[in-house]
Amino acid sequence: MPEGHVIGDDDEHAEAVGASTTPVGAPPASRGRPSGQPWDPSQGRIGQPVRSTHRRTPVRVPKEWRFDLPTEAKRETVAELREELAKARTMIVSEYRGLKVKESAEIRRALRKQDVTYRVVKNRLLRIAAEDTLGAALSPLLTGPTAIAFGTDEAATAKAVLDATRPYNKVVRITGAVLGDKAIDAETVSRLAALPSREVLLAQAIGAITGSLAATAGLVDAPLRETAALMQALIDRGGADATGVAAAPA
Question: Which of 48, 60, 75, 138 has its CB surrounded by the most CB atoms within 10 Å?
Fold first, then answer.
């Protein structure tokens, strides 16, 4: 074998020739530094990676590629909202901006005394809960940070919500309501609050119906009484005539 020949082909082991020229005891030449240039210990120890100063540009993921996986807490919230939507006849929707936690608790406490449930909700979860039932009526009202009041009496619920949120009308704004499956705007909610409650309206309706029936019965009963009196008068007169005939001489 000729002197200085490297085992293997020239392409495969070409770097071995340069490596054999390194003096014994000297640190190996680092990549990117000429072999004749002295090694600077301040550049880091041999074998340690050199930290790059290049800053990676963050990769933006398209919105349609993002997946918001539902958590157990979110699923429970959706189930609770579906239950509230199913049993409520009236839903008053409000938008709040800058409402403090303490103030929200005071509104909730005041409404609870009127049998109205008040909840601060995420619009996305509320849309999911209502998508199969009231989505078409409710979704247009969900425009910002949302709180919703659930009640069974239309007028009483509207009045209770307006009364409870009146001290905070600078940060709480009524956006509308859903009655049954129909949406109404904020102005209609105000007019609804001015009406008597369902119980009062029912009592008034029953009173009107009862009064009408009594008047009708009186109108029907009056001719019957008059007819009976006339018949009794005829009977009495007939008896008198019969007595007079019997008393007359033959």
Answer: 138
d(CA 209, CA 182): 29
CB burial of residue 192 (10 Å; 0-12, 13-18, 19+) = buried
pLDDT digits (tens, 9 = 90+) for 55-109: 666 556 455 444 454 688 899 999 999 999 999 999 999 999 999 999 999 999 9
Residue 72: phi and psi, rounded to 5, are: -60, -40
Task: Indicate the domain borders of the chain.
Answer: 72-195, 196-226
Q: Please count the other Cβ atoms lying within 10 Å of the Cβ belonging to residue 19.
A: 11
N-to-C CA span, the chain: 185
Contact 173, 95 (CB under 8 A): yes
CB 184, CB 121: distance < 8 Å: no
Q: Which tens digits make up the pLDDT trace of 186-229?
A: 999 999 999 887 777 677 677 777 766 555 555 555 565 666 66
pTM: 0.56
Predicted confidence (pLDDT) per residue in 117-168, tens digit: 999 999 999 999 999 899 999 999 999 999 999 999 999 999 999 999 999 9
Query: Got the DSSP string for 160-183?
Result: HHHHHHGGGTTTEEEEEEEETTEE
Q: With contact defined as beta carbons under 8 Å apart, do 121 and 53 qualify?
A: no
